[in-house]
Write a structure and sequence with these properties.
Length: about 290
């Protein structure tokens, strides 16, 4: 999905070396900047989408001061232990740099809605709206170096490589945890017994799901999920098993031909009976009967 980051800035004292290196993936844009800095440089930044700033290299023993409004008290960036910043959408940053000669940094812009769709869950707004300025994380820095190398690679690898690295980095920075699947509750003992008895008594005819649900006082959807949670199989599979058990009894206790056994146990015909029997038991009905009687 195409995503174009929107950013406003007013900066001075920077000179870009060799142009910007950009890679785009699904909902993500990564930029590498190599910049020479004047004795005093800085500016104002605000982006429409959330972004990450990761300092990869800096030359010079100067200082970087960051503040969130023109008149706010600034905060010095510790370039040894605070190279990563997460800036929420719409958050202003004012930056003053003094005595720094060169900066190489990675900027990652992302569309939170697209990323949420890819993760199949909405990202918690509190995580998106909470800035994280000047922190360090060895895993994030390792991923950032790999992403930067891929951005500058004249023969980039498959899109899934850079996309996977960058998505992993975002998951790490935002501390996104996978949701645990909801455990479905099973049927009460009386509900299960009533449903099972009904299925086994009427297994030779088509049993509608609504009949079973009515017996237990549940909706059809609720009953179906609860029955499977209790037995490990859906109701129609339990009915097939009940038909096969009845068929086995007839095979061992009578001399009825297979066509009759098939009809007596609710199968369409002998071919249908043989196919279902073989699939569930592992052998044809006649072979099974011979082996049991032997």
């Amino acid at each position: 999905m195409t995503f174009q980051p929107r950013m406003q800035n007013k900066i001075g004292g920077f000179s870009v070396i060799g142009g910007m290196h950009r890679r785009q993936w699904n909902g993500i844009v990564a930029d590498i900047w190599n910049v020479n800095c004047a004795a005093h440089a800085g500016g104002y930044y605000v982006a429409h989408d959330p972004r990450l700033f990761i300092l990869l290299e800096q030359r010079g023993s100067g200082t970087t001061n960051v503040r969130q409004s023109p008149h706010a008290r600034g905060r010095a960036q510790d370039n040894d232990s605070g190279r990563i910043s997460y800036i929420p959408a719409g958050m202003e940053l004012w930056v003053d740099i003094s005595g720094v000669e060169f900066v190489r940094h990675l900027d990652i812009h992302f569309n939170a809605e697209i990323i949420g769709q890819r993760l199949m869950e909405n990202i918690d707004p509190s995580r998106l709206d909470r800035p994280q300025l000047h922190f360090t994380d060895q895993r994030v820095m390792a991923l950032a170096e790999l992403i930067a190398a891929e951005c500058e690679n004249p023969e980039p690898l498959h899109d899934l490589y850079g996309d996977g690295l960058t998505l992993s980095l975002l998951i790490g920075v935002l501390q996104l945890h996978g949701t645990q699947p909801r455990k479905r509750s099973g049927l009460a003992t009386w509900q299960l017994r009533r449903a099972v008895d009904y299925i086994e008594e009427h297994c030779t005819r088509a049993i509608r799901l609504e009949e079973l649900a009515a017996l237990t006082g549940l909706s059809q959807s609720h009953f179906s999920h609860a029955f499977k949670a209790s037995t490990g199989m859906p109701p129609h599979q339990w009915q097939t098993r009940a038909r096969l058990e009845r068929a086995k009894h007839l095979l061992l206790k009578s001399q009825l031909p297979l066509t009759t056994v098939a009809v007596e146990t609710g199968f369409a015909d002998q071919a249908h009976f043989t196919r279902v029997f073989r699939k569930n038991v592992g052998t044809a009905p006649a072979s099974w009967k011979r082996s049991r009687l032997a």
